[in-house]
Amino acid sequence: MQANRRDITIARRIVLGAMGVCLCAWLVVNQGLRAQTTPFVAEGYGGAVATADAQATQVGIDVLQQGGNAIDAAVASAAALGVVEPFYGGIGGGGFMVIYLKESDRVITLDGREQAPASASVDMFNDPENPGVALPFAPHRISSGAAVGVPGTLLEWAEALSRYGTLSLAEALQPAIALAEEGFVVDETFASQVTQNQLRFAAFTSTQDLFLPGGQPPAIGSRLKNPDLAKTYRLLATQGVNAFYRGEIGAAIAQTVQPPPTIAEPPFPVIPGGMTLTDLDRYAVRVRPPTVTPYRGYTLYGMGLPSSGGLTTGEIFRLLEGFDLSPTNPAQTWHRVIEAERLAFADRNAYLGDPEYVDVPLAGLQSEEFIATRRALIGGGEAFPEENRAPQAEPEFRATPGNPIPYQSDPSPSLTTFQPVAQPKGPEGTSTTHLVTCDRSGNVVSYTFTIESIGGSGIVVPGYGFLLNNELTDFDLGVPHPNVPEPGKRPRSSMAPTIARGPEGEMLAFGSPGGSTIITTVAGIAVNLIDLGMTLPDAIAAPRISQRNGGTTQVDGDFEQTAVGQALTDLGHSLEPVPEIGAAVGLIHYPDGLTTVAAEPVRRGGGTAMVLMDAATRQTLGRSSLILPP
Ligand code: GLU
Questions:
Q1: Among 471, 475, 516, 518, which residue has the most ligand 1 atoms within 8 Å of its CB, making it the best to mutate?
Q2: Separation of 5 CA from ligand 1 center, angstroms?
Q3: Residue 471 CA, closest ligand 1 atom number
């Protein structure tokens, strides 16, 4: 804070002493802010933002320009994304935020994950006509009131601001209100997402009204306005989070969930949910310690339970630490990564769940002795050696989970008898969005949020302009399992917002959307950066290789055809090309204040990365001008 005030004083002196010079400087800055050589990569000073959308990134940059910090910028950009990318995340969903606070030199995490209502049970997706049988995953379960968890996103924004920000919630919502009123131009990605979801969107009157104007997906190039969401954000700005968790918006959510506003004859039976205003009233954001994983001179900070993100990427890094991964032999490097991912996912699937409900053997899972037993299963010469394969596994390339219980150094005995079960790879959403911010003081935010599927449950809250999540489909329905639905429980997530401290004191932040591929995308970016020596933009743009203890290893782009892809196939890996995995963003903030920030250039239509001030502008203006007069 003191540093800020000193900077402000210097800036004011400059403004008062040289008005003419400053006016020119302003013009330079504003031009510099908007004129980027590429929208995907930027380098400069004063702070940086990268998100999935240019307007949302600009909102964050504007907040930094007005003196806001990284937390303010993250929340304002996220609120804007709720308007311009409503199918990825918003106040109807949940998320996880990892924050590095420069002044106290610590990393904290905020858990804004959705929570099951009191009515949740293991048979909540069952067919009322056919007791004991769960309805199909899509479109039935994913487009149901039963799948809607109590949203955490709004309270997470409010907590982040009140604990670590400088703006009020009302201030942080203003740019998003303007965007919702002015509307945004529908691009190809948005239009095709509506088309892909047309059947289920058309099943709900409120969703039809908003996203299917005239009964059809909005035309590419048309402007989509959302006055209802502008009204909702305005209500929140004036009445605060109580309007949502204890007031009229909450009442509307409960009413929407039980039962959802379907058309007269929906094309599939829509399962109602049981969420009440009491469930909303009880919701709380948790402040949790990060997971901490040392890896080759870096320290990686991730999201702990109920997300599996930090722990599973952590197990992958712990396994890999025992190998010499060389850029000169990328096939052998990716072979090890694939095998480490396979084993880590077997353990994730068997043991991880909401820590407030299950006794997860964390000490054992993270102990070097347990990791050594798992590492010993990784062979150098072939994909997943036969003797290590699960005996009953179908397909045969699935690993059985290890047993961490003997390695629990935790003196308190486990109260739960675990029944490690290798879960088959279930269908998961590919929605979600990630953003990163940093400010001139060196605070950094890495934030992943979601409504689960693209378009969440497909149910817009009538009159309020936002989609409700379908996050409760992330629970496992086969009992016994640590991730079964229970009242008040949070479903296990894969979201892996990551912050890392590098060997030179630089701070990195990165993350991705993509369901369980988030974990492998984040691990892959770290390997690209740390082991293969790639630049940040290259690490983000590189092909993805994703093994999640399934029979095949998914790859995107034309990776399968490359020499490395061929070499992996020769080692016995079964590569499965998929259109795209993980539209990531990231940044590196160096100790001298320089920041490199990068967004995905192609996947999902590409994101945007911006710095407050590029290097040339900074040279013209001098360091003190990083704080601009109001
Ligand atoms: N529900 C997913 C999770 O929490 C995120 C949604 C997605 O990215 O598809 O892991």
A1: 518
A2: 41
A3: 1
| Spacing, Cα 509 to ligand 1 middle (Å) | 19
pLDDT tens digits, one per residue of 134-170: 999 999 999 999 999 999 999 999 999 999 999 999 9
Residue nearest ligand 1's atom 4 by CA: 493
How many angstroms does the Cα of residue 392 sit away from the middle of ligand 1? 28
Give the pLDDT of residue 15.
32
Q: H or E segment at 350?
A: helix 330-351
Active site (annotated) includes residue 432: yes
Q: Report DSSP state, residue 91.
A: T
Beta bridge partners of 545: 555
Residues 422-444 have a mean pLDDT of 79
Tell me which architecture the domain covering 312-415 has in CATH: Orthogonal Bundle (1.10)
> Residue 56 above 50 pLDDT?
yes
The model's pLDDT over 473-502, given as tens digits with 9 standing for 90+, comes to 999 998 889 999 999 999 999 999 999 999
pTM, entire model: 0.91
Q: Which one of 432, 448, 517, 595 is the catalytic residue?
A: 432
In terms of C-beta density within 10 A (0-12 exposed, 13-18 middle, 19 or more buried), how is residue 322 classed?
A: middle
Instruction: Evaluate if residue 393 carries a pLDDT over 90.
Output: no
Q: How far apart are CA 603 and CA 606, in angstroms?
A: 5
